[in-house]
Predict the 3D structure of the following.
Amino acid sequence: MQTMQARLSEILQEAKTQLENSKTISETESIRIKYLGKKGQLTEILRSMGKLSPEDRKVLGQSANSVRKEIEELLEKKFDELKKIEKNLKLKLERIDVTEPGKKISLGTKHPITITIEEISRVFMSMGYSIAEGPEVETVFFNFDALNAAPNHPSRDLTDTFYISDEILLRTQTSPVQARTLLKETPPIKIISPGRCFRCDTPDATHSPMFHQVEGLLVDEGVSMADLKGTLDSFAKQLFGSDVKTKFRPHFFPFTEPSAEMDVSCFKCAGKGCRVCKGSGWIEILGCGMVHPNVLAVGGIDTERYTGFAFGMGVERIAMLKYGVEDIRLFFENDMRFIEQFK
Ligand code: DAH
């Protein structure tokens, strides 16, 4: 009995000192368990009181309960105190300094091909053209037949074109949008169509199996080769500078008659001859011509009343010339060091 009383005051003393030194909530919680928990030291004493006489049990019970109460009160005080400290610390840590400079948001850059398509589109839109779109997965009919391509035209070859089935392919040019537009709309028609094209080419400095073109089509009454030349000459001056000259060389395309390729005088050397124009002073930039009556007829257009011109250009080629890029593969490797130069 005496020793149990002594043990009780010992427990109280110990608990007091430990609580005084406790610095955290979890430490305090383990002190609570150590003394008041199911297997705690005080609980153990209360449990062992069964062996005592009823009188002793009463006296010791009272002492034990008052020790318990005291420890409980100390615990409560400690928990309150620690919670307050924790809260103040949290407030301090989470304080927002509104005068701190904001985090820098780094804006992405447009891809040089997108920039070039937008530049080309802006010129034609300023001349009243609107933008038409067509599918990248096309039918043989729109990619070849409707465009007057002869049955033995070389680009129809399995080795040149990605076929999905006998009738379906990845378009090799944006020209099928001409046929689609002619079927859908009635003259006057004035559209350009930028988009992705595909050909079975092994990648090298100037070839990529995926590339971009911008197609153009104008159909109206009384449209002549003079309109074509005027339009494309004005386009070249707006894109490459007002000093450039243009020249049209006869060429062949199945969907235009007559057909031509347009060259611009070299904007690097002003026609004197340099590396960019390979010494010739001229750079080829697009194909064009007067829309073949067979193509107009596919769209049900009255070929006695209407005529039109069309043109098509490679976006990568124009971007390479404009920005002095020497390898087409750079556009598709997505190396940010390359792309970020076009900010
Ligand atoms: N589709 C031609 C090609 O991929 C480019 C072209 C030439 C388009 C003449 C035209 C055009 O609309 O009239 O090489």
Notes: The chain has eleven helices and nine strands. The chain has two domains: 2-93, 112-342. The first strand starts at residue 130 and ends at 131. The two ends are 89 Å apart (CA to CA).
